[in-house]
Specification:
mainly alpha; two-stranded antiparallel sheet; 2 strands; about 70% helix
Length: about 625
């Protein structure tokens, strides 16, 4: 088992190296086999290790591959060894199964979907490298190795979002995602340095053990460490206030959207907090802050999704909203519920994104839902797949999404770091989710076709097989028994109030209320009234409230005025670079001294004799004085 764990993250790395080294020398079929098979090996290894942890007496596995480097404390001079080492418990086992399993299905889809792209080999290489970085992140034994994977997924997301970089908008979206997530990454690395200087260790198990026992740090120091770690999490998981990069990340190919927004990068922040939950428990104020960030993000994203016209952007905002539910669960101390929803969300969101990709391909890359219509008749198989994904997103009873979201909402009322207000806001978020999901379905799939576009049906076996397996996981994934009690420590604060008996009934009824409301309010969409639909589409730009919601509640504009514009002004004023001029001034003085010294070496004997005489006279004068 040690060898299996040691090799698990490196299979896709072999594929990356081969695809980059040989590229055009490999046929599409051979490149696809290499890329997909290596991910399958990681997925099978993950499944085997998960089986061992679940059904045998094994609780944890660890393997130390090699010594990386040594850290030395400035205060005490103590050294700390940083190793390339992997640690597997049930939490990291769930994550590697999700990352490699869903990643395998996305790779299968991508192999067929991107077949005609001239840079197919480069694309699949980047996808493989992305999975390597994510697997390193979740298997890391220490926070330094975790940070290596953390930065790896950031780099690969930049490469994949900007894959079609010749389109200026795509390159701009990649830069935006890279820069905004760097803000969070900077906070994270400062937090890691703070941890090391405080505790002289970055071993995850050591830190959690200290937190379970007699925590040696003051409340203030703990507060700032957890705030900095949270800063990294909100950046990578696109939560308030660093959420604006995620919708623009739709510029990448659809398999990238599925990989980033379903199984990998956006879940990294959730995993970081869950992995370090013992440390976060030491700061209840930060726990409550995490809950507020999650609930506000899910509401903001839901409101924004209500007026979007691009099918992929709607799904991006729904991702932001569902990650908000996971953050809300973490802030409320519902650790297992958060990870459970992370897993279920990976299933149905990958299904939604990939099915949307199939629809976009069939409609000649049309992504505007106001220009679709009638897909229920024209693409019945894809429509059925999409309905399953939406049912899970809305959390209809019996679907996997119902089990995971209900687990979160059911924990909020009595949580010492959340409470009734968070329960009500989560219910409102669920209502909004059902409304924008119905709006999407009515506009795109019901009514009649609004543009005379011939359907390009995909006959790829890989595409249909990938979507079919994701449908099964989305429908029945909620029945998977994920026992994380050996990993997570429950909050021990005493519950102050009794939970009302009607809470569960309201939570179950909420999606149906949203569907009924949507059935009435979006009647014209259902019936395919082209005039009303066209007017509704135009109102997005003419109606101020809709335009404000469409822009993500103005966060991009706010950041442009507060950050980007002042920065550009300073850059313009300092276009000659004052700091560089100071450095060049030192260089000018050095050159001046060199010229003076060089002028003394002119080869004229009379000049040398006169200089010697003057020097001698100055010396004698000084001696006589």
């Amino acid at each position: 088992m040690m060898m299996i764990l040691a090799w698990l993250p490196f299979y896709p790395l072999i594929s990356f190296a081969l695809l980059i080294a040989f590229q055009r020398q490999l046929s599409w079929k051979l490149a696809s086999v290499i890329s997909v098979t290596t991910v399958l090996l990681s997925a099978l290894s993950s499944g085997y290790l998960m089986w061992q942890l679940s059904f045998n007496d094994v609780t944890t596995l660890s393997v130390n591959l090699w010594q990386w480097f040594t850290l030395t404390s400035f205060d005490t001079g103590d050294t700390h060894q940083v190793n390339i080492a992997f640690y597997l418990d049930r939490l990291s086992a769930v994550m590697v199964c999700v990352v490699s399993g869903v990643g395998f299905l996305i790779h299968c889809f991508a192999a067929a979907y991107m077949k005609e792209d001239p840079h197919f080999h480069r694309f699949m290489a980047y996808m493989n490298l992305f999975l390597v970085a994510m697997l390193l992140l979740v298997l890391a034994d220490n926070l330094v190795l975790l940070y290596l994977g953390w930065e790896g997924v950031g780099l690969c997301s930049f490469l994949l979002i900007g894959f079609w970089y010749k389109v200026p908008e795509n390159a701009a979206a990649a830069r935006k995602a890279f820069i905004i997530t760097r803000i969070g990454d900077t906070a994270l690395v400062i937090g890691l340095l703070f941890l090391f200087t405080s505790l002289n260790s970055l071993e995850i198990n050591t830190l959690n053990t200290l937190a379970q026992g007699e925590w040696p740090l003051t409340e203030q120091r703990t507060f700032w460490i957890t705030i900095l770690l949270l800063g990294g999490a909100v950046g990578k998981s696109a939560q308030l206030p660093l959420q604006t990069w995620l919708p623009d990340a739709m510029a990448g190919p659809t398999p990238v959207s599925a990989l980033i927004h379903a199984a990998t990068m956006v879940t990294a922040g959730v995993y970081l907090i869950a992995r370090m939950h013992h440390v976060f428990i030491q700061s209840p104020e930060v726990m409550t802050l995490i809950a507020w960030i999650g609930v506000l993000t899910l509401l903001i994203a839901g409101i924004t999704a209500l007026v979007q016209s691009d099918i992929k952007r709607i799904l991006a905002y729904s991702t932001m909203s569902q990650i908000g539910y996971m953050m809300l669960a973490l802030g409320a101390g519902a650790w297992s519920a958060s990870v459970f929803h992370l897993m279920i969300h990976a299933f149905f969101k990958a299904l939604l994104f990939l099915t949307a990709g199939a629809v976009i391909y069939a409609l000649h890359h049309q992504q505007n839902i106001f220009k679709m219509g009638g897909l229920l008749k024209r693409l019945p198989v894809e429509s059925a797949f999409f309905i399953v994904g939406l049912a899970c997103l809305v959390a209809l009873p019996g679907t996997s999404g119902f089990f995971s979201k209900e687990a979160i909402i059911g924990h909020l009322w009595q949580s010492p770091t959340a409470g009734p207000i968070f329960w009500w806001l989560a219910i409102i978020g669920a209502l909004i989710t059902s409304i924008y999901s119905c709006r999407l379905f009515f506009l795109a799939f019901m009514g009649s076709a609004r543009e005379n576009i011939s359907i390009v049906k995909s006959d790829g076996v890989l595409i249909k097989a990938s979507l079919s397996l994701l449908v099964i996981l989305s429908l029945f994934g909620g029945w998977l028994n994920i026992d994380l009690t050996t990993v997570f420590q429950p909050l021990t604060t005493q519950v102050m109030k009794q939970e009302p008996s009607w809470l569960h009934s309201v939570a179950v009824a909420t999606p149906f209320i949203g569907i009924a409301f949507s059935w009435w309010i979006f009647r014209e969409y259902r019936l395919g009234n082209s005039t009303k639909i066209a007017q509704s589409y135009q109102s997005i730009q003419t109606n101020r409230v809709k335009r404000w919601c469409y822009s993500g509640l103005g966060f991009d504009s706010l950041y442009t005025h507060l950050v980007v514009t002042p920065f550009m002004f300073i850059a313009k004023v300092n276009r000659k670079d004052l700091i560089d001029q100071l450095v060049m001034l030192c260089a000018w003085y050095a050159k001046l001294l060199r010229d003076v010294a060089a002028s003394l070496q002119n080869g004229l004997l009379r000049w040398y004799a006169a200089a010697f005489a003057c020097g001698l006279m100055l010396w004698l004068g000084a001696w006589l004085v």
